[in-house]
Structures are given as structure tokens and as C-alpha cells.
């Protein structure tokens, strides 16, 4: 029976893990909110769940196998990439000779990477990457960046027309 509870409770470590999970949820929420505001397929719930679960898998990958000889911390985290690729493949589809869902799938993939980073202890790095993704997604929809023709008229008044002579 004493082998069941091998690990001792470390309050600071648990607080760190809890903080990682909360930060991952916030980052997923920010990315998902931007997608939901644009009525895209994957919104807040999807991005929060992906980011939270990725962080959880990374924490498990780092911490759960410390008592196993020759453990590999990447084995659980590596499967997140495979799982997210499977989900992303289901989001991307072709309709009327147009590919749809590619940005949503890549956003979910990036959200999983952010969750892995945060779960791995790279809190600042994950938060900065979340901000960059939200900024890029917002800028991609701004009218100034879309290809639209614009007309600019410039009028000049010349007080002395004799100055301009060919």
C-alpha cells in the first residue's frame, strides 16, 4: 500500500502547475475569442480546451515519469502534435475548388504549441506567442491589408501659374 502514494505533495510545484493551466486557458481564450468574433469554426471553447490539454500533457510528460528509469519526457508531448494534426485534418476541407479551414487548423495547431510551451514552464514565451497570433489574425482582417483598389486625389493650388512651365 505504501507504493501507491510514492509522490509527496509539493505545494509550490502544484501552484506552478495550476498557474500553467490557468495561463494556458487565458491564452487559448484570447485566440479563440478572436476566431469566434469572426464566426470561424473553432472558437473559444475549442481553443481553451486545446491549450489547456496541451499544457496538461506537457506537465504530465515532464513530471509523471520521473520514477521510471530511462524516461523520455518528450514521449507524451510528442503525441500532442499527432493528435492536433488529426483534428486539424478534419477541419480543412475543399468546397467549390476553394480550401477552407486552413487558418483555423493552423490556429489550433499553434494553440497546442502554446499549451506545450506553457506546460513546459515557458510562461512568458507562450504568452508572447499568443499575443502575436491574435495580432496577426486581427491584422489579416483589417481593410488596409486586404487587396482593394483605392483612389487618392491630390489637389494643389499654385498661387503663380507662371512658375510651372514646361
Can you lay out the helices and strands and say which pair or pack?
Elements: H1 11-37, H2 44-63, H3 74-91, E1 93-95, E2 98-100, H4 102-119, H5 123-140
Antiparallel strand pairs: 1-2
Helix pairs in contact: 1-2, 1-4, 1-5, 2-3, 2-4, 3-4, 4-5
Shape: elongated
Structural class by secondary-structure content: mainly alpha
The end-to-end distance, rounded to whole angstroms, is: 101 Å
The residue fraction in helices comes out at 55-70%
Structural commentary:
- The protein is mainly alpha-helical and 166 residues long.
- It has 5 helices and 2 strands, in the order αααββαα.
- The chain has helices at residues 11-37, 44-63, 74-91, 102-119, 123-140, and strands at 93-95, 98-100.
- α1 packs antiparallel against α2 (44-63).
- The longest helix has 27 residues, at 11-37.
- The mean pLDDT is 81.
Which descriptors apply to this entry?
two-stranded antiparallel ribbon, 61% helix, 4% strand
Summarize the structure.
By secondary structure, the chain is mainly alpha-helical.
Amino acid at each position: 500500500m505504501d507504493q501507491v502514494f510514492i509522490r509527496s505533495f509539493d505545494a509550490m510545484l502544484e501552484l506552478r502547475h495550476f498557474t500553467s493551466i490557468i495561463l494556458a486557458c487565458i491564452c487559448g481564450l484570447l485566440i479563440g475569442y478572436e476566431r469566434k468574433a469572426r464566426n470561424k469554426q473553432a472558437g473559444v471553447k475549442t481553443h481553451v480546451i486545446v491549450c489547456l490539454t496541451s499544457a496538461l500533457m506537457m506537465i504530465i510528460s515532464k513530471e509523471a515519469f520521473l520514477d521510471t528509469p530511462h524516461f523520455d519526457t518528450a514521449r507524451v508531448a510528442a503525441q500532442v502534435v499527432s493528435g492536433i494534426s488529426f483534428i486539424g485534418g478534419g477541419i480543412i476541407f475543399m468546397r467549390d475548388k476553394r480550401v477552407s479551414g486552413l487558418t483555423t487548423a493552423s490556429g489550433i495547431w499553434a494553440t497546442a504549441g502554446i499549451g506545450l510551451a506553457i506546460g513546459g514552464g515557458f510562461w512568458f514565451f507562450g504568452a508572447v506567442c499568443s499575443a502575436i497570433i491574435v495580432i496577426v489574425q486581427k491584422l489579416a482582417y483589417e481593410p488596409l491589408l486586404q487587396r482593394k483598389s483605392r483612389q487618392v486625389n491630390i489637389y494643389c493650388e499654385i498661387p503663380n501659374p507662371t512658375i510651372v512651365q514646361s
